Amino acid sequence: MYKVHCMNNIAKAGTDRLGANYELTDALEDADAIMVRSASLHETQFPKGLLAIARAGAGVNNIPLDRCADEGIVVFNTPGANANAVKELVFAGLLLASRDIVGGIEWVRANADDPDLAKHAEKAKKQFAGHELAGKRLGVIGLGAIGAAVANTATRFGMQAVGYDPYLSVSAAWNLDRRIEHADDLSRLVADCDYITIHVPAMDSTKNMVNAELISQMKPGAVVLNFARNTIVDERAMAAALAEGHIARYVTDFPNPVSADMKNAIVLPHLGASTTEAEENCAVMAAEELRDFIENGNITHSVNFGAVDLGPIASGERLAIIHQNVQGMIGKFSQYLADNGINIENMANKSRGSMAYTLIDIAGEVPADVIDRLAQAGGVRRIRVIRSK
Ligand SMILES: NC(=O)c1ccc[n+]([C@@H]2O[C@H](COP(=O)([O-])OP(=O)(O)OC[C@H]3O[C@@H](n4cnc5c(N)ncnc54)[C@H](O)[C@@H]3O)[C@@H](O)[C@H]2O)c1
Ligand SMILES: O=C(O)[C@H](O)COP(=O)(O)O
Fold it and tell me: Looking at residue 369, which CATH number applies to its domain?
């Protein structure tokens, strides 16, 4: 029985998908795998037996990816599984920033006891008038699963979407509406957009990407939406730009003492992926990734190891080896197996950074002492023997 420890609430559809050979455990020290959403794992000491962490969601800035790789722990995320939920909330943010919907609702509530409410509303409504999205320019920073969905939907709203993503993947490019303009310079993109929406991951390279200088280059009266992470925006600079009226609105999904106190900010409590559908999609994808890794050794959608897939194990045994990405490792494995009269039926290897992963299919059984010797080979972090059922 495999044990899975959930660090956040994970949708039941996902934990059910783990199946009969898995049970949930409250004891982290017993866990073979962790399922997590946004809980921070940076201070967590992982047990020696932990094989994998599945982030039911996109952002992995809450997980120490390099430490996990070094400890032989494979980290997965669920790309695209919550993109539609975020896209829909971005459009709610665009509308909330453009029409004073919140002010109007509050006015009605404050005047609920007025017997002439309907008549007075007709007079009061001019203070809540706003702008339409159609015809406006929307700059999209990051055209991955969410950014592409936002840009495509914007064109259907009659907006002109302009995208900036120097690392755009080919599959993401195929998903883009051909009416979306391509910008190769961020300063130029922000200078002529009425709305700017951020959809890049939080990494060292994107920290304070939207800084005082970039904010100063934005069109006066621009609206900025941040459904990515607060570290991407220099929020003190944003607060100053809002206070002086250079930026009309800042819509953010990341509350903190700085953003909660900003003038003209609309601050949500990290609701982007909080829909039943997204929570289930993420949890199901995370569970499937964990199962394929634990039961077959295959790695799909890892954020700290490359993709390796030999399909389901059909017969014999499969060795799953996490090792350092140094010269001669594969040669060492194959030579050692050959020296022990063991033939390799199939093999796959992928490296990423300083670590690598090798799957080796063997027709029969590998004796325990051979496995022990392989495990002791310099550079091997972890070796698992997966047996066909
Ligand atoms: N608010 C929420 O609840 C919520 C939900 C999901 C994701 N997110 C955040 O949104 C981010 C994006 O999610 P996604 O699913 O679209 O991820 P994704 O990986 O599909 O897309 C990210 C895109 O950003 C691009 N990129 C990376 N660095 C860039 C840079 N310096 N400049 C421009 N583009 C750059 C990448 O090439 C990629 O296309 C996540 O990393 C997460 O932090 C928030
Ligand atoms: O990166 C993500 O997927 C989102 O920020 C969602 O986070 P959550 O799973 O904690 O809602």
Answer: 3.30.70.260
56 pocket-lining for ligand 1 (C-beta < 6 Å):
no
Q: How many CB atoms lie within 10 A of CB 30?
A: 14
Does the reported pTM lie above 0.90?
yes
Strand partners, 318: 361, 386
Contacts of 305 by beta carbon, 8 Å cutoff, 6+ apart: 69, 74, 75, 299, 322, 350, 352, 355, 357
For the segment 249-278, the average pLDDT, to the nearest whole number, is 98
Number of domains in the chain: 3
pLDDT reading at 295 higher than 90: yes
Instruction: Say if residue 176 is in the same domain as residue 28.
Output: no
Summarised one tens digit per residue, pLDDT across range 158-208 is 999 999 999 999 989 999 999 999 999 999 999 999 999 999 999 999 999
220: exposed, middle or buried (C-beta count within 10 Å: 0-12, 13-18, 19+)?
Answer: exposed
pLDDT by residue (tens digit) across 57-94? 999 999 999 999 999 999 999 999 999 999 999 999 99
Q: What is the number of the ligand 2 atom nearest to the C-alpha of 274?
A: 11
Q: 130 and 69, same structural domain?
A: no
Instruction: Please work out whether the CB of residue 82 comes within 6 Å of at least one atom of ligand 1.
Output: yes
Q: What is the mean pLDDT of the chain?
A: 97
Domain range enclosing 55: 1-82+275-305
Distance 78 CA to ligand 1 centre (A): 12
- From the CB of 141, is ligand 1 less than 6 Å away? yes
- pLDDT for 389 beyond 90: no
CATH number where 5 lies? 3.40.50.720
- Is 186 touching ligand 1 by the criterion CB < 6 Å? no
Q: Cα separation of 182 and 108, whole Å?
A: 43
159 plus 106 within the same structural domain: yes
Asked whether residue 162 falls in the same domain as residue 226, the answer is: yes
